[in-house]
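User: Fold this; tokens only.

Assistant: Input:
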Amino acid sequence: MATLCLTAQAEAQSMGEIAFLPPHPTTEDAVTVVFAPATGQPNRCPIKVTVQRPLVFIESDYAFSGECGNQGALNTANLGKVAAGVYQVIWAFKDPLPSEIPVIASLTVVAAPVQAPALSLWGALLLALCVTTTALAPHRRPRYEP
């Protein structure tokens, strides 16, 4: 029994790996999951992608013709922009064989930094002129003395 479990685990580990593009996404990035099948494993086409925090579930099928047609790109699932949080990404297989255990990885999406508006060059020059005029106003001599 232990040998059977170890064999299934070894085969499950050899199904492949998943990675993320970009590797450290923020809430402003469109996230893509890339499945890299292990040596001897077939390419896959994503059929259904479900994002429901804290899970991302990707169901895939064999790429029989080597292409995915209207199902998307080979071994790739686009999640789009994802809310901040930690997700368990599960790349599962349609009608799996007993040895085809889903590939699981963790994805962390952080909130994008808030960008403060910056002044343009002309805005900075105008601000400098206003500050200078205000600073020099008390030092101005009156034109007419009574």
